[in-house]
Design a protein that fits this description.
The chain is of the alpha+beta class. Among the domains are: 19-168, Methylamine Dehydrogenase, Chain H (7 Propeller), CATH 2.130.10.10; 685-764 and 1198-1262, no CATH class; 1309-1534, no CATH class. The protein has 41 helices and 59 strands. Strands 14, 15, 16, 17 and 18 form a five-stranded antiparallel beta sheet that branches. A four-stranded antiparallel beta sheet has the order 1-29-28-27, with no helix packed on it. The chain starts with 9 loop residues before the first strand and ends with a helix. Residues 246-258 have a biased composition (Basic and acidic residues).
């Protein structure tokens, strides 16, 4: 492998040069660094640095004289004092820190202005000093340890210069090292001899109180020699022990640092007892050299074996196994160990090598070669230059940089921006300890030229050299994954998304973290592409919460894309967003609704409401938008479409707090809505639709029973329901307002006289006879991973919340314990049966079938637009059908009607719908089957129906023998075919059950049979048969699952109550006992049914249900028990699927013939041996005297749809995706006003009708309220508007009509000539003959007779004899009245009786109409005739004479003001004279009649002032007046 070059990382920088250096010493304390140099001239040079400040150099001249020549130097630990020893053994202390930095505070132990001198003590060894170290004891005593040429070591006090102790070794001393352990308990001295031997002297041990030298130390030279010899021998023994330990540690085994430290320190403590007396010889492995080191925040010993260049790193106890082993390059003289590097000086002292600690690490085998990759760089000095010392240079910038990075990190967290360059990378800088190199002529500092992080980023991004980058990460102990992630951040920030994602993958970043970083970068397109890739690739293993987070980010990204771009780009983005929302399962749907509403994407909101079933969330979001709008602003057309979405009906009724805002908004802005929106609102607010029936129907029922004793008993229910009745009334009121506006915009107002009468709904088709024996109610339904149970009419569901199958709404949790389905509870419906499929649920209630869950294959029957519904919705297509049973297959559904018809819908690829095709059916469709069906059952891909004669039919898949053998060669059938159960195919069946792949049937003789098998069972059976066939030579395999198998026998006296089928098990409920069958030996044999031998199973069970791998049962007390596999716990208690990691693995099965391996999931067998679990959180069963059963459904009447009044409906309306192209006219409006009278505010509706000038509707409202006068006035206003649209012609022929002696049947020719009916003048032209006296009605009659005589009988063409006789009789009548004598009533009566119409006058109406030539005029006259007659009939029934008088007044005024023929009016009045003769006579004849009895709705344009109603008399004929007088007088006579 080629070497990766990193030479450009380091640089050897010269600090001082042109020096002739003899000795050097260095110390650092925090940010203070001091270097002392002794030149060959004898002078001392101090080089001082303080942090990042400029360095200070100070040259100190030294004493002249040979004996004063400096032999060794050292610093104290505080970097304050410099200690020197001269050739004569004298000690000098220089205030080094004060000389270079006067600002620093110094402890004035010695002189700050001069050198402190300690002459050689008399007890000091007489030898040349070679080296010196400063020792500050744990008690803060300041001492100097001086090594001499003869091997002696002297301890000199720096307080008074006394020699405190002396010891010696066997050879000259070259170097002294002061060592201490990590606990700071023990301080020792490492003594190096000139030959390479090393000793260790214990100076101080704090735990034992030992300090060298002991106070009674009087060791002679002889004893010292013998002691050294014994120590030497001891060292050899320990060397053998050390070698053995090295052998044991081979194989790369390492001890933990803390363990090694504790071990070494303990062993050192044990050894201290015998090592206190003098130096201990260290094991000498030929050329092994020990040196104290400080690295990795601890004190260590390095042992370098020169022949093999093997470096071992030990703890304080050098005899312990090495902590680390490194292979160095050859010819190394000395070395310096740091955290990440080993700085090596060659033997010739001319080369400095930088070796990586990480890369040079090896094992103890000894055969490993030096890793050239570990050599980072080398620096060679000039020929005449040699390295004297190397000192560790601690990286003081690390602490400062860490603080800076922390502050920067907090700022970045606030800004939430990705780094755009390496300068923005928020990563801690690694601590890099370098070295100070002292040569014989210069001072050098090894520096890092570039930040390792920067170089890493450059190698990755600019050079794409991952090999170099990885090496840098290893060398500097960088977090490789974090660095690669940062590189990905930089790439993504600069638009290189593909490369950035590759970096994230290299960094093994969490998938969600990658998506979040893409989201932070702000490029929505890249984010969407990556999210789509992650969610669509099945191989990507993600948890469900991660998927939901990704989906939420995609939602936000789509919204951002839609808002950012316009035109075609916006259309495309919106289309993609809607497609994502419709088909993607994992995202927070509530978040999507709120975000779409806030962004104004109403078409998206409509999709979420319709496709994802989020109607409550949409209603709440829209109401929030309306509520937050402080001022009125224009709402877009799309907003109105969303507001009028028909699927929101149910939510509007059950969420009154939100819907009230919406309904108020609709009523306030209805006038500005377009027609199409009004048509949609009609569908949404239709109170006759199935979604609204539960609440509105109960309000109707409560209103009808409000005065009955039964309502008093149910007062509590009514009281609770009043909270919802308010919104129901507002709902209906809003609907009527919308209908009024729609009718006014889509219909030209004409006058329809038929609207006076009550509108009759269309006739309902005759109901067929119901089946005699209704199927049993199923209060317990078990699906694949969820279940539902009916308790007290309410549905409780539990289990895995997949696609909203629990009916609780959109859930972010994986599963749920039993909870009530609140939507059904709020609708006040009572559930009767429930059935669960794979991801959907059906509930049969007293108001139809409610469904919820997944609808991807149409299994809900709500239409193709609906993808899923997390809330229950009614199947409107079956609203007019009385359904008595439902069955949910895994992906399809079946319903049975009360007349024995079957409806199927959903998944149909295997023909399981039975309609002759394999298409999916999204709306329930009637199954074409002539037989009457009494039971239904649905499996995974097949269906069964049982006729009333006990015959069984099936359709769908037969791949696993679901349809029995029947000699059916095909694998499926899409038409119902008979299924025969052997051995007796003629025996009728009584019960059937199916859920997955096998079926169960109970014959009338109570024998139980089963057939079919699951795919796993079939494969296992085939595998075993194939193996047996190979051994025996049989080639054809049998298919036992396709034949019926007898599994249980009941008795006719105690019939079997229920059977249920699971995935691989069967349950039978017989005489209250529960029996379960299963295959224990994995063979497709008949399932064995065994009674549970458990105490609790002695109870009586009443219902049972089977899921995929669990069973549930209800006992007589209402307790629900369940048992089964691991998934059963999820189903019942709502455990998260994250517990799957702790779920035991399933069983592996290998097929020998195909070598195929399948895993049978854990709990594949139903564990009946363990005790069942009681389902929690269910209420107790209530005792009721009116149990819910099918009679509740059969007793309800089907309401009339308002759409059927003026439209011809061929089938039930589908409210979700209807085309809304229905006609709504006045007939529909009047029917609604009549039907829902009392459930709306009449004042509000009346005002709206008057505003829209719909006077007939206003009249209907007044009529329903009993305000006949107002109603009649509104009718007259409507009729007047109608009259003005036509050119009326009341032309009557002047030729006399010959009648048998009748003077009153012909209209006065002169009066005819006075009528002027033209388009421009509709006023009555009054002739002098018509101006009658107002003094008295009787005076008017007299005046009329006189005028008639003078004018020659204008009134009638009767003979003069008759006229004269009438005049004479009238004169007698008047005179008798004036003389206050009895009138000749008999004569008048006789005269008028003689004048009654003959038989030829019975058709007088038709004769009058015949004289009107214009057809429009004739029709209007007829309508006016009918209008007045209708109200006269209504008021006559009330017996209110004042009201009748008011109606008559308005009728006469209207009739005359509109120039209608008076003869027709007379005919109306004469026809019903006996009903109102008294109020009419007062109206026409009374002198003081005041016309202010009622409100005057019709104003007349007349010239006369103060004209009274008595003036009407002149318009009527004499015949009419006489007949009126006759009726009055005759009734007065009777009185």
């Amino acid at each position: 492998m080629a070497r990766t070059n990193l030479e450009d990382l380091f640089q050897l920088k010269c600090l001082l040069n042109n020096l002739d250096i003899k000795l050097a010493a260095r110390v650092e304390n925090g940010v203070k660094q001091l270097v002392a140099l002794v030149l060959k001239t004898g002078d001392i040079v101090l080089y001082y640095t303080y942090g990042e400040l400029p360095s200070v150099v100070r040259r100190i001249p030294w004493f002249t004289g040979k004996t004063k020549e400096v032999q060794a130097i050292c610093f104290d630990n505080t970097a304050t004092w410099l200690l020197t020893v001269s050739l004569d053994g004298s000690l000098y202390i220089l205030p080094a820190l004060s000389l270079v930095d006067r600002k620093q505070k110094v402890d004035c132990k010695w002189s700050l202005n001069d050198v402190t001198h300690f002459p050689k003590h008399s007890q000091a060894p007489e030898s040349k000093p070679q080296c010196i170290v400063w020792w500050q004891t744990l008690d803060c005593n300041q001492n100097a340890l001086v090594g001499y040429e003869n091997g002696a070591i002297g301890l000199i006090s720096l307080t008074d210069g006394r020699c405190l102790g002396v010891c010696s070794v066997s050879e000259d001393i070259s170097k002294l090292y002061l060592c201490q352990d990590n606990s700071l308990d023990c301080v020792s001295l490492l003594i190096c001899g000139v030959s390479g031997q090393q000793w260790r002297l214990i100076l101080e041990q704090h735990s034992t109180g030992y300090v060298w030298p002991p106070e009674n130390n009087s060791i002679s030279q002889e004893s010292m020699a013998s002691r050294l010899q014994s120590l030497k021998q001891m060292g050899v023994d320990k060397f053998v022990s050390f070698k053995q330990r090295l052998s044991e540690a081979r194989g790369g085994q390492r001890r933990d640092s803390q363990t090694s430290d504790s071990t070494s320190e303990s062993s050192h403590s044990e050894r201290s007892e015998y090592s206190h007396s003098g130096p201990e010889l260290l094991p000498h492995l030929c050329d092994t050299f020990f040196a104290p080191q400080y690295a990795r925040n601890r004190y260590l010993f390095s042992a370098f074996y020169k022949p093999t260049s093997l470096l071992t790193i030990h703890g304080v106890d050098i005899e312990s196994a090495p902590l680390f082993v490194h292979r160095l390059l050859p010819n190394v003289g000395c070395l310096l160990l740091t955290d990440r590097f080993i700085y090596c000086v060659s033997e010739d002292s001319r080369t400095l090598s930088v070796v990586s600690s990480q890369l040079s690490e090896c094992h103890l085998e000894g055969d490993a070669e030096f890793n050239t990759e570990s050599l980072i760089t080398q620096f060679s000095l000039e020929k005449d230059e040699k390295i004297l010392n190397i000192f560790k240079l601690t990286d003081i910038t690390f602490v400062h940089d860490r603080r800076h990075k922390e502050e920067k990190r907090k700022e970045k967290e606030k800004s939430l921006n990705l780094p755009k360059s390496v300068n923005d990378v928020n990563m801690a800088k690694p601590k890099i300890d370098t070295c100070i190199v002292i040569s014989n002529c210069a001072i050098y500092r090894l520096i890092v030229k570039a930040s390792p992080i920067r170089k890493f980023v450059e190698y990755v991004i600019e050079e794409s050299d991952l090999e170099k980058a990885e090496k840098i990460a290893i060398v500097f102990s960088l977090n490789l994954q974090q660095l690669l992630e940062n590189c990905g951040d930089i790439l993504i920030s600069n638009g290189s998304f593909h490369q950035g994602l590759i970096m994230y993958k290299q960094a093994k970043s969490h998938l969600l973290k990658r998506v979040l970083k893409l989201a932070i970068c702000g490029d929505s397109q890249a984010l969407l592409k990556f999210v789509h890739l992650c969610l669509s690739v099945s191989k990507v293993d993600m948890s469900i919460p991660t998927k939901i987070h990704m989906g939420n980010l995609a939602v936000m990204a789509f919204i951002e894309e839609i808002l950012r771009f316009g035109g075609e780009k916006r259309i495309e983005n919106t289309k993609n967003f809607m497609n994502f929302l419709k088909h993607e399962e994992f995202y927070d749907q509530v978040l999507a609704v709120n975000v779409a509403c806030q962004a104004g994407q109403w078409n998206v909101v409509s999709l979420l409401a319709k496709s994802r079933g989020l109607q409550p969330e949409v209603v709440a979001a829209i109401s929030q938008i309306i509520h937050s709008a402080s001022v009125h602003h224009e709402y877009t057309y799309n907003f109105l479409l969303t507001l009028s979405e028909p699927c929101l009906t149910q939510s509007l009724l059950i969420f009154p707090s939100c819907s009230q805002l919406l309904l108020n908004f609709i009523r306030a802005n209805i006038d500005s809505f377009p027609v199409y929106v009004l048509q949609r609102l009609i569908f949404q607010l239709d109170p006759s639709q199935p979604a609204a029936l539960p609440l509105i129907g109960r309000v109707f029922q409560n209103r009808r029973n409000s005065t009955s004793m039964e309502s008093m008993i149910e007062s509590l229910e009514v009281e609770n329901f009043d909270k919802g009745s308010t919104i129901v009334k507002e709902f209906i009121e809003t609907f009527i307002v919308v209908l009024i506006c729609l009718v006014s915009k889509t219909n030209e107002f004409g006058y329809n006289i038929d609207l006076l009468e009550k509108i009759d709904p269309p006739e309902m088709p005759s109901q067929q006879s119901f089946i005699k024996k209704m199927p049993s109610a199923q209060p317990l339904g078990c699906g694949f991973e969820h279940a539902a149970i009916i308790r007290n009419g309410q549905v409780y569901s539990m289990g895995v919340a997949s696609s909203g199958c629990l009916g609780f709404g959109p859930l972010l949790i994986q599963s749920s314990p039993p909870r009530i389905v609140h939507t059904l509870s709020e609708l006040k419906v009572n559930a009767i049966s429930v059935s669960c499929g794979r991801k959907h649920t059906l509930a049969l209630t007293d108001y139809g079938i409610y469904c919820w869950g997944s609808n991807t294959l149409g299994q809900l029957g709500l239409g193709q637009e609906v993808h899923e519904s997390p809330y229950p919705q009614v199947i409107s297509a079956l609203s007019t059908v009385k359904i008595v049973d439902v069955a949910a297959g895994q992906y399809h559904s079946i319903a049975l009607s009360a007349i024995g018809q079957v409806y199927t819908w959903g998944w149909g690829i295997h023909g399981q719908l039975g309609h002759g095709s394999c298409d999916n059916q999204y709306i329930p469709k009637l199954l074409s089957l002539p037989d009457i069906i009494v039971q239904i059952a649905a499996g995974h891909a097949h269906s069964l129906v049982l006729t009333k004669d006990g015959k069984l039919f099936g359709f769908g898949s037969n791949a696993f023998g679901q349809l029995e053998s029947n000699n059916l060669e095909i694998m499926k059938t899409s038409h119902p075919i008979p299924v025969f159960l052997l051995p007796d195919i003629y025996m009728p069946l009584e019960k059937i059950s199916s859920a997955y792949f096998h079926n169960i049937a109970v014959r009338v003789d109570q024998e139980v049979y089963t057939w079919g098998a699951s795919p796993q069972e079939m494969r296992l059976s085939q595998s075993k048969q194939s193996q047996k066939g190979t051994d025996s030579g049989i080639s054809k395999l049998s298919e036992p699952w396709k034949a019926t198998m007898h599994i249980y026998s009941g008795s006719i006296q105690k019939p079997i109550e229920q059977v249920a089928a699971g995935f691989r098990h069967t349950a039978v409920l017989h005489n209250g006992k529960l029996l379960i069958g299963k295959n224990l030996d994995e063979e497709l044999a008949p399932p064995k049914i065994s009674e549970k031998d458990m105490g609790i199973f002695n109870q009586r069970f009443i219902h049972v249900g089977c899921g995929s791998d669990y069973t549930m049962a209800v006992d007589h007390s209402g307790k629900v028990l369940a048992w089964g596999s691991y998934s059963m716990a999820q189903t019942l208690t709502g455990k998260s699927s994250e517990d799957e990691s702790r779920r035991p693995d399933g069983k592996l099965v290998i097929f020998k013939n195909t070598k195929r391996v399948i895993r049978l999931p854990h709990g594949f067998h139903i564990n009946c041996d363990s005790p069942p679990v009681e389902v929690p959180s269910l209420p107790s069963m209530a005792i009721t005297f009116t149990p819910l059963n099918h009679q509740t459904i059969l007793s309800k009447t089907t309401p009339v749809s308002i759409h059927s009044l003026e439209n011809k409906l061929t089938s039930n309306i589908h409210y979700i995706d209807s085309d809304y192209s229905f006609k709504y006219g006045p007939k529909t409006l009047h029917y609604v006003l009549e039907t829902y009278h009392g459930l709306y505010d009449t004042e509000t509706i009346l005002s709206k009708c008057l505003q829209m000038k719909n006077y007939q509707a206003a009249s209907k409202i007044a009529l329903l309220e009993g305000h006949y006068s107002d109603s009649f006035s509104f009718q007259l206003m409507a009729f007047k508007e109608h009259c003005t649209k036509f050119k009326l012609n009341f032309e009557i022929f002047n030729s006399p009509v010959v009648k048998d002696k009748s003077c009153d049947s012909i209209i006065d020719s002169n009066r005819q000539s006075e009528i002027d009916v033209t388009p421009t003048n509709n006023k009555i032209t009054n002739s002098p003959a018509r101006i009658l006296s107002s003094s008295s009605s009787l005076d008017s009659l007299k005046q009329w007779t006189d005028e008639a005589e003078n004018q020659g009988g204008r009134e009638s063409p009767c003979s003069m004899s008759e006229f004269g006789e009438m005049k004479q009789t009238m004169a007698q009548f008047l005179s008798s009245i004036k003389s206050e004598s009895s009138p000749p009533i008999s004569n008048i009566s006789k005269l008028i009786s003689y004048s009654k119409p003959s038989d030829g006058e019975l058709n007088k109406d038709n004769e009058i109409y015949a004289h009107i030539k214009d057809e429009n005029t004739k029709e209007i006259v007829k309508q006016a005739f009918h209008l007045i007659e209708f109200y006269i009939q209504k008021i006559h029934m009330s017996e209110n004479h004042i009201l009748m008088q008011n109606i008559l007044l308005k009728s006469i005024e209207f009739w005359l003001a509109n120039n209608l023929p008076v003869s027709v009016l007379e005919n109306i009045l004469l026809k019903n004279m006996d009903k109102y003769f008294y109020p009419l006579s007062i109206l026409l004849f009374c002198k003081n009649f005041n016309n202010n009895l009622g409100e005057e709705f019709v104003k007349k344009d007349v010239d006369e002032k103060d004209k009274t109603s008595a003036n009407f008399l002149k318009e009527f004929s004499t015949k009419f007046c006489l007949q009126l007088c006759y009726m009055v007088l005759e009734n007065v006579n009777k009185a």
